[in-house]
Specification:
Elements: E1 2-7, E2 11-20, H1 30-35, E3 51-62, E4 65-74, E5 84-85, E6 89-99, E7 105-115, E8 119-120, E9 123-124, E10 130-138, E11 141-144, E12 147-161, E13 172-180
Antiparallel strand pairs: 1-2, 2-3, 3-4, 4-6, 5-8, 6-7, 7-10, 8-9, 10-12, 11-12, 12-13
């Protein structure tokens, strides 16, 4: 993707553009498969399309401390070959970061994720769409030359699903991110 950065005295802003590549596995409309008595799965591990990504953020630094906010979007523009179109997703986070050493830091953030509706055969999937809010703690570790490992845990305190479809509950989400500056 493309990355643009603006830096000032202790402040910086960025805009990143990119694409999400089709990974994972999708299958045909699970509602039709279920009606036909065929084994199926409703959760899609990927969406089978190339989707535009946008991320923007701002941060201000004072010594070892940093306060940052950022927002992002992934917006699928078309159906895959199995007639599935993934949901648009939007996220926002904000919070402080402290640099403990040249290689290690800690970040505490408020996080919000909103996922709109997916569709099958151009019809809305009533079981899709949700929003969640939580508090995330991560510990970025610089492994060397632009490579960062970021384990994280997030306590989810609010989950809302859309419509009358299936609901779900969650308390904790754990993740492990790996990034490489280009």
């Amino acid at each position: 993707g493309w990355k643009g950065v603006l830096r000032g005295e202790g402040d910086s802003a960025f805009v990143r553009l990119g694409v999400a590549l089709p990974t994972g596995q999708t299958e045909r409309n699970p509602f039709h498969l279920g009606d036909a008595g065929i084994r199926h799965q409703h959760i899609q591990f990927g969406n089978g399309t190339v989707d535009p990504l946008l991320r923007a953020g701002y941060s201000s630094t004072w010594g070892r401390w940093n306060l940052a906010c950022e927002a992002g979007a992934r917006v699928p523009l078309y159906e895959n070959r199995k007639r599935y179109q993934g949901p648009p997703e939007f996220d926002f986070s904000a919070g402080p970061h402290v640099r403990i050493s040249d290689r290690f830091g800690a970040r505490l953030q408020y996080a919000l994720l909103y996922q709109d509706r997916a569709s099958w055969d151009s019809a809305t999937d009533e079981n899709s769409g949700f929003s969640l809010q939580g508090v995330r703690l991560s510990a970025p570790i610089v492994l060397g030359r632009g490579v960062t490992l970021a384990p994280s845990g997030m306590y989810v305190y609010d989950v809302s699903s859309r419509g009358g479809g299936d609901t779900f509950e969650m308390d904790w989400l754990f993740g492990l991110g790996l990034s490489k500056d280009l």
